[in-house]
Structures are given as structure tokens and as C-alpha cells.
Design brief:
It contains 5 helices and 9 strands; from the N terminus they run ββαββββαβββααα. The protein has 191 residues and is α+β, with helices and mostly antiparallel strands. It is globular and about 40 Å long. Belongs to the IPP isomerase type 1 family.
């Protein structure tokens, strides 16, 4: 089981003000501690989003489909820097990102662990080769948002809790970001 033992996460308050640091596993134990995170959605020119299937060795949510990548910024690391670092580490490419929104969520993720995150959500466009790191990612696919929503509805057990929360609570923000990408490459608008 991959726990990244010793890795520190940034503890924050409900306004994303730093209040301390904690070892990553401790921040996810005993109901969790609110900590900073980033989530990334990458879209292509066809209007599809890039999903990853988390590697089976991950310390939680192993084998589940999720958004392009996620991580926890290191102490003194800006969220966008962390997002781009993790995109390269997990999916094997870099592309410009822009922050779309922030939100707080709390959910059990199995193995007695809880994600309680102040999440900075980033969006970008990429149309090149994907080279996932097999330690982090067991598979990947490009899917339309409509197909993703239909599959999440019929098989929610195949998806990470945070992706389901993002799709349920922030779908319009995700559609707006997708429209910003497709507006530059086609006349397709997602409503």
C-alpha cells in the first residue's frame, strides 16, 4: 500500500489560511483534518476530458476512475505549481493550467480514511501523447462529459468520491471550463 509515509500536507482553515502541517496519513485519519489539495481536469479539442484509473497500490480509492490528477501541495508550494508537478508525475505531460474554482468537501474514502480538503480545481487543454506513470495510474481514457455523467450515474462504485462530488455539486463550473476550451477549437457549446 502506497502511503507516501512522511509526506507533509498543509492544514488550512475554511478560508484556505495556513494553520499548520501534518503527515499525510494522519491528515486523513480519525475523521480527517482540513488540508489543501488540488484537482486537475484536462480537456482535448474534441471536448473530452481525460480520466485516470488510480493504481491498485494507492493507499485509498485504489482502482477507481477519477479526474485527470489530484495532489496535495507541499508546504510553501503554490497550488498551481503542485497541479502542474503532479500532472507531469502522473500523466507524463505538462500543459498550462488555470484555476477555475475552490471548494471544501469531506468524505470517507475507505480503509478508515477521510478526505477533508480545501480543493483548488484547475483546468487545461492538451492534445498530445499521454504517458501515465504505472505506479500512480493503471489506465486512462478520454471521455465526453455526457458519457462520464451517464457512467457515474449507472456505476458510481467505479469512481472516486471526490469526482462524484465535483460532478454533482460543480457541474456548471466544469461545463464552463470545457466550453472555454472548445470555444477556441470548435463551435461546440455544452449546456
Amino acid at each position: 500500500m502506497d502511503t507516501d509515509s512522511g509526506t507533509l500536507v498543509v492544514l488550512v482553515d475554511e478560508h484556505d489560511r495556513v494553520i499548520g502541517k501534518a503527515e499525510k496519513l494522519r491528515a486523513h485519519s480519525d475523521g480527517g483534518k482540513l488540508h489543501r489539495a488540488v484537482s486537475v481536469f484536462i480537456f482535448n479539442a474534441k471536448g473530452e476530458t481525460l480520466l485516470q484509473r488510480r493504481a491498485d497500490g494507492k493507499y485509498h480509492s485504489a482502482g477507481l476512475w477519477s479526474n485527470t490528477c489530484c495532489t496535495h501541495p507541499a508546504p510553501d508550494e503554490e497550488p498551481e505549481v503542485a497541479a502542474r508537478r503532479r500532472l507531469k508525475e502522473e500523466m507524463g505531460f505538462d500543459t498550462p493550467l488555470r484555476e477555475g474554482f475552490e471548494f471544501i468537501y469531506r468524505t470517507a474514502v475507505g480503509n478508515g480514511l477521510t478526505e477533508w480538503e480545501y480543493d483548488h480545481v484547475f483546468f487545461g487543454e492538451y492534445n498530445g501523447a499521454v504517458k501515465p506513470n504505472p505506479v500512480e495510474v493503471s489506465d486512462y481514457k478520454w471521455v465526453s462529459l455526457d458519457d462520464l455523467l451517464a457512467d457515474v450515474k449507472s456505476k458510481p462504485q467505479n469512481y472516486t468520491r471526490w469526482l462524484i462530488i465535483l460532478l454533482n455539486d460543480h457541474l456548471q463550473e466544469i461545463k464552463n471550463a470545457l466550453n472555454n476550451v472548445t470555444r477556441h477549437t470548435s463551435k461546440t457549446t455544452i449546456s
